[in-house]
Structure formats: structure tokens, C-alpha cells
Write a structure and sequence with these properties.
alpha+beta; 67 residues
């Protein structure tokens, strides 16, 4: 799923009390994710739909920035 978001968006970094973190970015029109500074992976359509259904911080971040 492509969102037609600007590739110049900053990343979204979510940190948790355990010290873990999830980071999200938009690159080449795709939303990418990595946990704890690991390897980046592209979120598929079902991943993105789940964020929007659950109204997560990621969904709010994407919604604010879509064109």
C-alpha cells in the first residue's frame, strides 16, 4: 500500500519503559519499520490497516502527513 507521502518526513520513534523502541519512516512511498535499531522492513497493507483500525500513534502520524 502506497500513501503518497513525502519522503522528507522525519522518522517516528516510539520508546517503551523496557528500553525497547520501534521506529517508522517513509521511504520511496512506503512505510518502513524497525525494532531496536534492527533491519528496516516495509509494512504491508495488513500491517498498515491494523494501525488504522487500532488508531495507533503510527496511524495518527501517517494521517497528519498524508497529502
Amino acid at each position: 500500500m502506497r500513501f503518497y507521502l513525502s519522503d522528507s518526513l522525519p522518522t517516528l520513534l516510539l520508546t517503551f519503559p523496557t528500553g525497547d523502541s520501534n521506529e517508522y519512516r517513509v521511504r520511496q512511498g512506503c512505510v518502513e519499520f524497525r525494532a531496536n535499531h534492527g533491519a528496516w522492513r516495509v509494512l504491508d497493507e495488513s500491517d498498515l490497516q491494523l494501525h488504522f483500525v487500532l488508531k495507533t500513534e503510527v496511524a495518527r502520524w501517517l494521517h497528519k502527513r498524508k497529502s
